[in-house]
Amino acid sequence: MSKAQSGVRAVAAIFGASVAPVVIVGMVGAIGFGTRGIVSKSLAASFMSTHGGSVASSSVCAYLQSVGAAGLGSTSKAAIAMIGAVAGTAAGQPRMTWVQVGVGAALAVAGATVAPIAVVSVIGAIGFSPGGIVAGSAAASIMATYGGTIWARSTCAVLQSIGATGLGGARTAAVSAVGAAVGAAAGLSR
């Protein structure tokens, strides 16, 4: 495989991982699951009427309304990003076999799962810990470059926040999406 083909697949995987969650939320809204509730006379309203006025909190209808009202949660974003990464990579490669798609999907799941763990582990290993910056570590050297004043949202502050509390929902979803894209690209490039 040429470098150009690998680049196309990587871009397609990242594009798929980035766009898929947005498309899903847009589709959910388009069928009538809106930010203010189910839109009258929509496909969503018809779907809700099949529940006879009693929608269980764990039902598909309730989940779709939650997505329409508040968007996707971190786990859903990561899962949909994985699917988007595999689909994007598959679209970037002609004549793909089902085995390749299966390997790509498996590596996308592995990438999405491992990437957040790896990122937090590396950040901790360089000295950004739950107890603060470890003396004598690479993190302490990074902190020293700030001359004693660490601004909110600076690289050092963000790394220390991750070291202390983990990635959080949005960062986990973003890192998972990148991991999924890398995994899909690696799996589908064989």
Set out the fold topology.
Elements: H1 3-30, E1 33-34, E2 37-38, H2 43-49, H3 60-70, H4 74-91, H5 98-125, E3 128-129, E4 132-133, H6 138-144, H7 155-165, H8 168-188
Antiparallel strand pairs: 1-2, 3-4
Helix pairs in contact: 1-3, 1-4, 1-8, 4-5, 4-8, 5-7, 5-8
What does this structure look like?
- The relative contact order is 0.17.
- The chain starts with a helix and ends with a helix.
- The chain is flat, with a radius of gyration of 21 Å.
- Helix 1 (3-30) crosses helix 4.
- The chain is mainly α and 190 residues long.
- The longest helix has 28 residues, at 3-30.
- It is built from eight helices and four strands.
- The protein has a two-stranded antiparallel ribbon.
Outline:
Helices cover 69% and strands 4% of the residues. Helix 4 (74-91) crosses helix 5, helix 4 (74-91) runs parallel beside helix 8 (168-188) and helix 5 crosses helix 8. It has eight helices and four strands; from the N terminus they run H-E-E-H-H-H-H-E-E-H-H-H.
Question: Which features characterize this protein?
Answer:
4% strand; 8 helices; 190 residues; single chain; two-stranded antiparallel ribbon; 69% helix; mainly alpha; flat
